[in-house]
C-alpha cells in the first residue's frame, strides 16, 4: 500500500504532537545488541568483552555501495547530469538508484508511481538498508520514455547513470557490496582495546568470520520475524496475523506498544482496528494492508498474509536464518564446522537433517504447508557458507569514533563482521557518551567526499538531526 508524501508528513506532525503531550511514552532504554539479544536470534557463542560501537547516528554513517557481477562499484556520488545514454538501445532502462533513510521497497513503490509503471516492472539485485546512504542498480521495463527519470527531485532518492539495454535485474544479480561505516564510541578506546581490535581485524582478514545472520534479518526493531516464521511454518495463520499486529517488544516505543495492546480486545472488529492504526499509515503500513483485506474478507487469514507477500517471505526465511544461527553456534562449540550448511527452505529432506531437533522443539513439520499456500515463496536447495571472507580496504581510529571500509560478497552482513569488534548499538535514544558531530567517512579515508550528496539530501538529514536533538534533550 503506497503512502503519499502528504500522508507521511501528517504522520510526522502527529508523532511530534503526541511526543510533546506524552513524553514518557516516547522514552525507552538504548538498544544494545547484548549477548541475550543475540541468543534470541540463535547466536550463542562466547564473544568476550568488546567496547560499545554505536552505528547509524546519521544515515551517512552507514554507506552501502553495490558491486555488480563485473565487480564495478556503483557509488553514492552525484554524477554530472548527462541525460539518458542512447548508445545501448533496448526495451529495458537501467539506472543507479541512490537513496537515504528509506527502504528499497518504499522507494520502488514511489518510483513506480512517479514514472507510471507497475512495481513489478522495477527490478533490483538486493535490498539495501533503510537507515543508511545506499546505491544500487535497478532495471525498469515498459517505460516508453526515460526522460522523467532525469527530472525526479525526491527528498530521499535520485536516479543517475540512465542507459538502455536488454534483460532485467533480478534478486541475486550482484557480487556484493562495499561498506563505509562509522562506529561511534562511548569513550575513547584504550591502547589495549585498539590493539585487540586491530588484531581481530588481521585475524579475520586472513581467516574470515562466522557468517551469522544478524538482527536486520529478524525484523528490527521488534525482532519478531523468526517467531512469525515459526507460526507460519505451523500453519497457524490467524495467530501469525494477530501476533504481528498485537505483540509488543521492549525495543518498540511504549506509545506504539500501547496501541498494539488496545487492539487485542478488538480482535475481529476490523473496522475499529483500522480506526486505531490509520492515524499512523507509515508506521502501520503492513498491518493496514492486512486489516483492510480482512475488512473485506473476514476470516481469510491466508489472503490477509498474501496481501504482504514480501513480509511473508521474510518471516519464513527468518526462521531459516534462526535455525542456521543455532546450528552454527552449536558447531562452533564442537570446533568441527563444515564450510557450508544447507538452508531449511528446501524440498530436499537432506537439507532439513541438520535442523530436525530444532523443528521438533518448535513444533514444525517439513515440508511446510505454507509453501503450497504462498506460492510466491521461493523454495530451493541452497548452501550457505559458515565462514565468510572479507576484502578489507582501510580503517581509521579517532577518539570518539572509528571508520571502516570493506567489501563483502552478497548475502553477508557488515554487522556480522563488526560484531566481532564491538558490542553494537543503534537507534534512539543513544547510549551515554556518544558524540553526534558530523563525520565525513570518505574524506577521512581519502576516498572522496560526501559534501555534494549530503547537500542533495539536506531535507532528510535535517529531519534526522532534529529527531536526534529531541532524543538527546529528553
From TrEMBL:
UniProtKB keywords: Isomerase, tRNA processing
Pfam families on file: TruD
Taxonomic superkingdom: Bacteria
SUPFAM superfamilies membership: Pseudouridine synthase
Any one GO molecular-function label of the UniProt entry: pseudouridine synthase activity
One GO BP: tRNA processing
UniProt cross-references to Gene3D superfamilies, sorted A to Z: 1.10.1510.30, 3.30.70.3160, TruD, catalytic domain
TM annotation in the entry: none
Domain TRUD: residue ranges: 208-421
Keyword ATP-binding: no
Family the entry assigns: Belongs to the pseudouridine synthase TruD family.
PANTHER family documented for this protein: PSEUDOURIDYLATE SYNTHASE PUS7L, TRNA PSEUDOURIDINE SYNTHASE D
Stated name of the protein: TRUD domain-containing protein
Species: Candidatus Sungbacteria bacterium RIFCSPHIGHO2_02_FULL_53_17
Lineage, highest ranks first: Bacteria, Candidatus Sungiibacteriota
Amino acid at each position: 500500500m503506497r503512502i503519499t508524501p502528504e500522508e507521511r508528513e501528517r504522520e510526522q506532525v502527529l508523532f511530534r504532537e503526541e511526543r510533546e503531550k506524552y513524553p514518557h511514552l516516547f522514552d525507552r532504554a538504548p538498544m544494545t545488541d547484548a549477548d541475550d539479544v543475540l541468543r534470541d536470534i540463535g547466536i550463542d557463542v562466547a564473544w568476550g568483552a568488546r567496547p560499545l560501537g554505536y552505528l547509524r547516528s546519521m544515515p551517512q554513517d552507514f554507506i552501502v555501495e553495490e558491486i555488480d557481477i563485473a565487480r564495478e562499484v556503483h557509488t553514492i556520488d552525484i554524477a554530472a547530469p548527462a541525460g539518458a545514454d542512447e548508445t545501448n538501445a533496448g526495451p529495458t532502462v537501467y539506472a543507479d538508484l541512490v537513496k537515504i533513510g528509506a527502504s528499497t521497497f518504499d522507494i520502488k513503490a514511489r518510483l513506480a508511481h512517479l514514472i507510471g509503471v507497475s512495481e513489478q516492472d522495477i527490478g533490483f539485485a538486493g535490498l539495501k538498508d533503510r537507515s543508511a546512504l545506499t546505491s544500487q542498480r535497478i532495471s525498469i521495463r515498459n517505460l516508453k520514455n526515460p526522460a522523467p527519470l532525469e527530472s525526479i527531485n525526491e527528498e530521499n532518492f535520485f536516479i543517475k547513470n540512465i542507459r538502455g539495454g536488454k534483460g532485467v535485474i533480478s534478486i541475486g544479480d550482484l557480487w556484493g557490496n562495499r561498506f563505509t561505516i562509522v562506529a561511534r564510541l562511548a569513550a575513547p578506546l584504550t591502547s589495549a582495546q585498539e590493539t585487540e581490535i586491530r588484531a581481530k581485524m588481521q585475524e579475520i582478514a586472513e581467516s574470515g568470520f562466522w557468517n551469522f545472520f544478524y538482527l536486520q534479518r529478524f525484523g528490527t526493531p521488534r525482532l519478531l520475524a523468526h517467531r512469525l516464521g515459526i507460526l507460519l511454518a505451523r500453519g497457524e495463520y490467524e495467530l501469525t496475523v494477530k501476533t504481528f499486529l498485537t505483540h509488543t517488544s521492549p525495543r518498540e516505543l511504549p506509545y506504539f506498544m500501547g496501541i498494539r495492546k488496545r487492539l487485542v480486545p478488538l480482535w475481529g472488529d476490523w473496522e475499529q482496528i483500522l480506526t486505531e492504526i490509520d492515524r499512523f499509515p507509515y508506521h502501520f503500513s503492513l498491518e493496514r494492508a492486512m486489516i483492510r483485506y480482512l475488512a473485506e474478507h473476514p476470516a481469510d487469514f491466508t489472503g490477509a498474509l498474501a496481501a504482504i507477500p514480501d513480509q511473508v517471505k521474510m518471516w519464513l526465511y527468518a526462521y531459516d536464518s534462526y535455525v542456521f544461527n543455532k546450528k552454527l553456534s552449536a558447531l562452533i562449540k564442537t570446533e568441527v564446522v563444515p564450510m557450508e550448511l544447507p538452508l531449511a527452505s528446501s524440498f530436499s529432506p537432506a537439507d532439513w537433517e541438520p535442523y530436525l531437533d530444532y523443528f521438533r522443539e518448535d513444533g514444525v513439520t517439513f515440508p511446510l504447508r505454507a509453501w503450497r499456500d504462498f506460492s510466491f515463496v521461493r523454495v530451493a536447495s541452497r548452501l550457505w557458507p559458515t565462514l565468510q571472507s572479507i576484502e578489507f580496504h582501510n580503517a581509521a581510529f579517532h577518539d570518539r569514533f572509528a571508520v571502516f571500509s570493506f567489501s563483502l560478497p552478497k548475502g553477508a552482513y557488515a554487522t556480522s563482521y563488526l560484531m566481532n569488534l564491538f558490542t553494537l548499538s543503534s537507534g534512539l535514544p543513544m547510549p551515554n557518551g556518544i558524540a553526534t558531530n558530523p563525520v565525513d567517512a570518505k574524506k577521512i579515508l581519502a576516498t572522496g567526499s560526501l559534501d555534494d550528496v549530503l547537500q542533495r539530501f539536506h531535507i532528510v538529514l535535517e529531519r534526522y538531526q532534529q529527531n536526534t536533538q529531541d532524543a538527546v534533550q529528553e
